[in-house]
Amino acid sequence: MSEISRADVEHLARLAHISMTEQELEKMAQELAVIVDSVATVSEAVSGEVPATSHPLPLTNVFREDEVGHVFTAEQSLLNAPDAQAGRFKVPAILDEE
Amino acid sequence: MTTHTHELIRLTAAEMAAQLRAGEITSVALTQAHLDRIAAVDGGERGIHAFLHVSAEEALRTAAEVDAIRVAGGAEAEALHPLAGVPIAVKDLIVTEGQPTTAGSKMLDGWMSPYDATVVTKLRAAKLPILGKTNLDEFAMGSSTEHSAYGVTRNPWDITRIPGGSGGGSAAAVAAFEAPLALGTDTGGSIRQPGAMTGTVGGKPTYGAVSRYGAIAMASSLDQIGPVARTTEDAAMLHELIAGHDPKDSTSLTGEVPALAETVRGADVKGLRIGVIKQLQGEGYQEGVLARFHEALDALRAAGAEIVEVDCPSFEYALGAYYLIMPSEASSNLAKFDGVRYGTRVLPEGGPLTIERVMGSTRAAGFGDEVKRRIILGTYALSAGYYDAYYGSAQKVRTLIQQDFDAAFTEADVLISPTSPTVAFPLGEKDDDPLAMYLNDVATIPANLAGIPGLSVPGGLSDGLPVGIQFLAPIREDARVYRAGAALEKLLAQDAEPFWAQAPELAEAAAHPAGK
């Protein structure tokens, strides 16, 4: 079994910005251990000489003319905002108050 | 529902298009017939629930426009796209202006896209009435559509069973005659596997052949939009319509769109070398699935195809590689759902309202279990100390799988396998076993890892449930899978009856939504 502890999951959840209850952390740790065990076989399949593939097609960077295309108005951009004020997104405090 | 309506919705999209052109039917009548069908079978406790949103007004408006142009005649009527006036449904992962897009997630509940996906722009330009948005596993993560935050979709062949996923809504809508055509997205099989489960045709184009601009990304190196239909000809026509280079998608292919519908119409397999993938059969595959698969091989052989066996030894590791690469890319793609600029924002209970805590509670409430599982798994696979062993190795396996395909395609023109190891399973059966759910995609995943085109066509029934047969071809050779798929479709048609003539009638009266 892979050694994924509750503490590991807690750390990962913090990195991923997902709040989890104690119960969720427990359950996720168990599930992840099973999944990771099953997918970990990939490391047995490959050696150092095999090149990595990150993308199915050999594409190179794509350039375009630096021209202004379609732009959204401020109103359109704010249409789905959870909170807005004075034509701007209103966000929670970036820093802790203390 | 009148007899006329009953017959109208059972036509193929190609037949609908021909009757529209000949002036035998109107698009308004055709669109209304589908809206009536949706009202009759989609709602209620035993309803199919393929749709998350129905856009009757907009669809009828587009239909009336097409009818008016046809009545007026002249150059504008001549210039209409062959599918103009044929209604279509769109998977709710693809953004639409004027219709909500949820991706099957609470995170996007009530979100209205300020722009259309390129494929939707193409549908609008060709004047296909858009009936609405179809259900899916949340952010396309799943193989049963049970992970939708808005309830399950039922399989029209047996409403106690799953329609496949993630595009179960699109497949079920087409199978239940609620729409003749639909759009899907395929990251690991989400078009082809639901096609197999519902007895419909599902195509995954070559990676980059169809623009992904406006498809909410799950795993960007794997995602692909494609057609869902009841026949290979219909799928080919839709595929041609949505394909083509798009400067808004930096991974979009350049070059001509292949003539797929023409390929389908003249399809035969004489002299075609069809490779049976040794690794995609046997253990784990249901007997009934293998029986239909071998019948398909016999039929193709009798029609003049050369059946050969090909060896793809690295496929053993495809599922593992996929479930490392996909969550890794997904964990990064889904980082944008943070409750700041759009989507749901959920405030934490008590404590200071800092952005970090608001993000945490927003993502805790907005994402379902499977999405959380994949984000955490992806975060793990990408984290320092594990990156080389997991993500790095998975990328190397990807190379080996491409090499397997390259070798196989020197011996065969197309490859064949069952689309899925099993027929549709009962709703709820794999709720507590994420790993068992992942195994559904074992035969479809290799194509995504290699970027090649695939097509699932109905291969008959096993105990009354559809079995799918999958064809695969090299990159940019989409026409080959349509050629082989269309030929098999013709060979398996019994007494010239289309496959879906065997589908059970849905209880329409019982499914009427309250108050109708």
Strand order of the largest sheet of chain B: 1-3-2-4-6-5-10-11-9-7-8
Proportion in helices of chain B: 25-40%
- What's the helical proportion of residues of chain A? 25-40%
Shape of chain B: globular
Radius of gyration based on Cα positions of chain B? 22 Å
Instruction: Order the strands across the largest sheet of chain A as they lie in space.
Output: 1-2
Number of strands of chain B: 11
Mean pLDDT of chain A: 89
Return residue spans of chain B where pLDDT drops below 50 for at least 5 consecutive residues: 509-516
Per CATH, the architecture of the domain at 6-43 in chain A is Orthogonal Bundle
Query: Hey, which two chains have the biggest interface?
Result: A-B, 55 and 73 residues
Helix-strand string of chain B: HHHEHHEHEHEHEEHHEHEHHHHEHHEEHH
Number of distinct beta strands of chain A: 2
Integer tally of domains of chain B: 1
- Report the radius of gyration of chain A as a whole number of Å: 23 Å
Tally of DSSP helical segments of chain A: 4
Assembly classification: heterodimer
Share of β-strand residues of chain A: under 5%
Number of helices of chain B: 19
What's the average pLDDT of chain B?
A: 95
